[in-house]
């Protein structure tokens, strides 16, 4: 919602573009390899991921502009790695605010300061704040330059039917209705996915108690980019408040409603203004401010049982809805898009077996369930659901005034990328390794020369090895070999001896690793990671 | 702990329970349980005691 007198997309800091429906009607029904429903951030990342592999797609969105209001604001390191590999990261880095630190307060006193893992070995910060409008704008700018993506606005998909060897997609725009066929369909049409309903699928899971008002405001508040959580503050006894800084002097304030507080009343503009003013007083800010946008929110953990339905894959919010306070919704959606893009591209190009596609749902649904487990923990701390949780939460906060270990219970432990443990295309670990990054995990970052290990990765699979001889024995079209000298920082990070190797997938997850690698073992692992040899 | 030690703790706890406001008693006991569990330093043992303390409440 926006303040009275401002139109729906009349923002204080962002100019919404307007997109017309496709003017060239002649080629609308041409067959495409992939049809993507929804040009939200996740659909756009999928289209860019496919284009990077040389795969053409058609991208539909029902609206005439981007998503209204700021939604996601916290973009995690792993998402930046993905955007970097897509070659679209520069504007994100230019605009966003990187951060590592969070502070929690109990009744006005600081009880915890946490730091997410970071250091000179990391190319990107653990988290960046950027309004979702900019995320969509920067992705769109890249799509507009990309000839392999046929984007169609004001184009609502009304049916997705199976044809046997593909799908028939029915589309309606202001100028007419038409059908087109595609080999595959990606449903990136968001939390209220129409494709999900058309295919008779349902999200399953839980709804949480606490209700929050999410408000964005503009103010010249002088505080670094540090996430603040206020528990039981004076301005809202019994409630929790989160405060995040965003670019353009925009601040996100999430405040919890009291039990029994009437929602309709709470979201009336004058009540939002009064509540925000009380929070600002608590923060010690007494300057001018302007209200940008607000909405009401309560947490859910909902997911489909299977993210695949024949030739349709669900990616992003259409497949899963996670509580926003874990900041995983968009980040997980970007990882979904990245995951399906490299797999689908290889199957379409005949470079991988169709079984590769069966790994999408276990890998990405596993990531969702992992988020659910963490998010349920932090939701229970922020908004205790029952008397027992409430009492223990209050006891922990109260103890934390004198004992730092109790304050750690308020640590949201956000964001480490998920390790694909139950994946059919990830090899079992070589037991001679210690802890480190096992198969299924994201490749750790390390310094290599003037740059980073991730800069060395090839466009497809990469073999990182300390055995210079291995490169000559492996001549595969989709494989880049990166030789590391033993005893370098990167080799140490990866616990590599003189003949070790890591096989890294196009999405930078580790497919297999060997303390002592052989060309035959690498070939087998490559075949496994590509879903078997194509028929 | 000797019987005398146990008695000392028992008495101190009774006196403290009377000294805190009645509506803060639960909070006080929850804090105390967490503090002592942290001192014990053994999560499994603490969890066993939590379950044990829930026994016989209705006798
Ligand atoms: C208040 C709030 C705060 C959040 N904060 C964070 C955060 O900090 N970090 C984070 O990672 N996530 C966050 N999220 C979650 C994040 O916003 C979503 O996960 C993300 O927008 C999902 O992207 P998507 O592309 O899957 O779906 P959407 O962004 O919903 O996009 C779906 C698109 O599909 C289009 N569409 C729908 N139906 C059709 C149809 N039939 N035909 C054609 N097009 C159609 C829609 O027009 C829309 O553009 C937050 C969400 C909210 C609400």
Bound molecules: flavin-adenine dinucleotide
H/E element sequence of chain B: HHH
Sheet with most strands of chain A: 8 strands, mixed
Full CATH superfamily name of the domain at 32-95 and 130-204 and 301-356 in chain A: FAD/NAD(P)-binding domain
**Separation, N- and C-terminal Cα atoms of chain B:** 27 Å
Q: CATH top level of the domain at 32-95 and 130-204 and 301-356 in chain A?
A: Alpha Beta
**Low-confidence sequence ranges of chain B:** none
**What name does the CATH topology of the domain at 32-95 and 130-204 and 301-356 in chain A carry?**
FAD/NAD(P)-binding domain
Task: Kindly provide the radius of gyration of chain B, computed on alpha-carbon positions and rounded to a whole number of angstroms.
Answer: 13 Å
* Fraction in beta strands of chain A: 25-35%
**Oligomerization:** heterodimer
The main sheet of chain B comes to:
none
Indicate the structural class of chain B. Answer: mainly alpha
In DSSP terms, counting alpha (H) and pi (I) runs of 4 or more, how many helices of chain A? 15
Explain this structure to me?
Chain A has 15 helices and 25 strands. Chain A is of the alpha+beta class and 535 residues long. Among the domains of chain A are: 32-95 and 130-204 and 301-356, FAD/NAD(P)-binding domain; 447-529, Glutaredoxin (3-Layer(aba) Sandwich). In chain A, the strands form five sheets. In chain A, strands 1, 2, 8, 9, 10, 11, 17 and 18 form an eight-stranded mixed beta sheet that branches. In chain A, helix 1 packs parallel to helix 8 and helix 8 runs antiparallel to helix 9. The longest helix of chain A has 23 residues, at 360-382. The mean pLDDT of chain A is 94. With 59 residues, chain B is mainly alpha-helical. Chain B has a domain at 22-59. Chain B is 75% helix and 0% strand. Chain B is globular. The model of chain B has no long low-confidence stretch (mean pLDDT 96). Chain A binds chain B through residues 391-392, 394-396, 398-399, 403, 405-406, and chain B through 26-27, 30-31, 33-35, 38.
């Amino acid at each position: 919602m926006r303040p009275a007198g401002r139109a729906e997309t009349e923002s204080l800091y962002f100019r919404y573009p307007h997109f017309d429906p496709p003017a060239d009607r002649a080629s609308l029904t041409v067959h495409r390899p992939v049809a993507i429903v929804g040009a939200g951030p996740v659909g756009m990342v999928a289209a860019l991921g496919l284009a990077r592999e040389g795969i053409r797609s058609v991208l539909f969105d029902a609206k005439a502009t981007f998503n209204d209001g700021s939604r996601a604001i916290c973009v995690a390191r792993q998402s930046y790695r993905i955007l970097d590999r897509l070659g679209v990261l520069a504007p994100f880095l230019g605009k966003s605010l990187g951060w590592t630190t969070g502070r929690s307060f109990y009744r006005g006193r600081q009880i915890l300061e946490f730091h997410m893992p970071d250091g000179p070995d990391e190319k990107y910060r653990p988290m960046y704040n950027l309004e979702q409008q900019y995320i969509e704008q920067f992705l769109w700018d890249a799509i507009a330059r990309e000839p392999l993506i046929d984007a169609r606005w004001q184009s609502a998909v009304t049916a997705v039917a199976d044809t046997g060897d593909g799908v028939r997609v029915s589309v309606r725009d202001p100028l007419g209705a038409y059908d087109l066929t595609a080999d595959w369909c990606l449903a990136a049409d968001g939390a209220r996915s129409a494709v999900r309903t058309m295919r008779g699928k349902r999200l399953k899971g839980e709804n949480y108690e606490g209700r929050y008002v999410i408000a964005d405001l503009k103010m010249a508040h002088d505080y670094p980019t540090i996430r603040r959580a206020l528990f039981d503050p004076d301005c809202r006894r019994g409630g929790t408040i989160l405060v995040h800084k965003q670019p353009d002097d925009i601040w996100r304030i999430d405040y919890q409603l009291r039990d029994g507080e009437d929602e309709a009343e709470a979201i009336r503009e004058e009540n939002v203004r009064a509540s925000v003013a009380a929070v600002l007083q608590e923060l010690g800010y007494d300057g001018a401010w302007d209200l940008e946008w607000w909405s009401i929110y309560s947490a859910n953990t909902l997911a489909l049982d299977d993210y695949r339905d024949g030739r349709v894959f669900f990616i992003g919010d259409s497949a899963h809805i996670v509580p926003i306070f874990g900041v995983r919704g968009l980040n997980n959606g970007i990882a979904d898009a990245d995951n399906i893009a490299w797999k689908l591209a290889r199957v379409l190009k005949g470079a991988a077996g169709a079984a590769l596609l069966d790994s999408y749902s276990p890998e990405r649904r596993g990531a969702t369930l992992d988020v659910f487990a963490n998010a349920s923990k932090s939701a229970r701390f922020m908004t205790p659901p029952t008397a027992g949780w409430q009492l223990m939460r209050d006891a922990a906060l109260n103890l934390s005034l004198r004992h730092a270990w109790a304050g750690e219970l308020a640590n949201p432990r956000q964001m480490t990328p998920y390790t694909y443990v139950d994946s059919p295309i990830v090899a079992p670990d070589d037991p001679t390794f210690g802890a480190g990054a096992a198969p299924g995990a994201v490749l750790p970052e390390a310094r290599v020369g003037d740059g980073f290990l991730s800069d060395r990765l090839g466009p497809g699979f990469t073999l990182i090895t300390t055995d210079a001889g291995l490169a000559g024995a492996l001549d595969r079209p989709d494989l880049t070999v990166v030789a590391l000298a033993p005893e370098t920082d990167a080799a140490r990070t990866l616990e590599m001896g003189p003949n070790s190797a890591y096989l890294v997938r196009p999405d930078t997850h580790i497919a297999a690793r060997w303390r002592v690698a052989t060309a035959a073992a690498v070939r087998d692992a490559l075949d496994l990671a590509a879903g078997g040899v194509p028929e | 702990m000797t019987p005398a030690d146990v008695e000392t703790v028992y008495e101190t706890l009774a006196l403290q329970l009377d000294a805190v406001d009645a509506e803060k008693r639960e909070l006080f006991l929850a804090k105390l349980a967490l503090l002592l569990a942290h001192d014990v330093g053994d999560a499994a043992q603490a969890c066993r005691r939590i379950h044990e303390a829930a026994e016989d409440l209705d006798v």
